[in-house]
Amino acid sequence: MVHAIWRNYPEIETALYDVKKIIHDELAISSPSVSNKIREYVDAPGKYTRAGLCLMFAKLNYKKLPKEILYVAAGIEMLHLATLIHDDVIDEADNRRGIQGLHKTHSNRIAIYAGDYLLAYSGRLFKKAHKLFEGDSIDDWAMERILDGEISQLQNQFEPSISIYQYLRQIRGKTAILFALATYSGTAHPEVSRFKRRQAFYIGLEIGMAFQLTDDLIDYKIDQTASGKPQLQDVQNGIYTAPLILAMQENDFNHSLLFSRGHLWSENQLDDLVMELNKFEVFDKTEGFVKAYLNKALSKMDKFSKRKEMNDIKELLSVVMKRNF
Known about the structure:
globular
């Protein structure tokens, strides 16, 4: 199944079914149980936002989507899934996309190697579209930046002195680069200049920043049944995101509400922390960052293309980000 957000875009919806088929057909893990688990992730109710954006940007230049672009979209999704599996090991998360994590059904070590396999697998899928890029593919560079962002996040775990500037740099690599890779790769076309494709890259970067900051808000405001992951999971794992970092920078923030590694939080302690954050209006401030990044993205999109398909992309973003433009 493909997520319901794509029903208004039937050509993209059909293409995403093809993307999933490519992922299943090309997967080559010898362990049946690990292979089946990865297939379960692939078929779980994820939105495939990054792959869909890649295809929507491709529609700006292609009347019919070439199969190479489908391989690119598949590679993007496998790169994303690799980071999710690695994240869940580090975060000790039980579930992802409504299913039990691979590290829970198997082991941490198997999950790490499975994530590593998916990194290599994504590269193999990207190479299927190499002729579209004429030596200008950035998937290897993007993979480096994503993993560098993951390292930064791990090093900043339980770090109360992290600044909002450091955090924004961290998520630029950890999350936003993958969106930028999607929009950039989607513009791979013989008649699209490298300059134009770089413009698409920065559109994706702004979208990715807004997406991650929205996810930060979701962690505090939406329960597990709606978000697919436990509420306030990040702070319990020592991953300090924008709302908390903004509060920690206030002189009268009560740092005693934070705990060191290994502490098991009670519901009352989590409630106390949220009450403390509300004192500093950090959720509104984070929302301000989201709007700023989205406005930058929309401004760049208006300059990039006046075609109807660009309005479709804006409409999709309003649904995914739950905002009116």
